[in-house]
């Protein structure tokens, strides 16, 4: 299964909401015996690192607006 686009509303940032969401996702993956990986932006990276995720690569971003 895939869990996508976990975000925290600005009014709830810094109050533990993101941690609750991440922990829930990890628990579901562990329950089902599936690996967990994610793609995170700079802003979200610290919360994922707190839960044991490590950076293993970089994503390539391509701007296709011009002639793409």
UniProtKB/TrEMBL annotation:
<dbReference type="InterPro" id="IPR000182">
    <property type="entry name" value="GNAT_dom"/>
</dbReference>
<dbReference type="Pfam" id="PF13673">
    <property type="entry name" value="Acetyltransf_10"/>
</dbReference>
<protein>
    <recommendedName>
        <fullName>N-acetyltransferase domain-containing protein</fullName>
    </recommendedName>
</protein>
<dbReference type="GO" id="GO:0016747">
    <property type="term" value="F:acyltransferase activity, transferring groups other than amino-acyl groups"/>
</dbReference>
<feature type="domain" description="N-acetyltransferase">
    <location>
        <begin position="1"/>
        <end position="68"/>
    </location>
</feature>
<dbReference type="InterPro" id="IPR052523">
    <property type="entry name" value="Trichothecene_AcTrans"/>
</dbReference>
<dbReference type="InterPro" id="IPR016181">
    <property type="entry name" value="Acyl_CoA_acyltransferase"/>
</dbReference>
């Amino acid at each position: 299964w895939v869990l996508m686009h976990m975000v925290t509303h600005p009014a709830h940032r810094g109050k533990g909401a993101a941690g609750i969401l991440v922990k829930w996702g990890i628990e579901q993956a562990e329950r089902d015996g599936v690996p967990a990986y994610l793609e995170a932006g700079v802003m979200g990276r610290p919360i994922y690192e707190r839960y044991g995720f490590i950076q293993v690569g970089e994503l390539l971003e391509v701007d296709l607006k011009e002639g793409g």
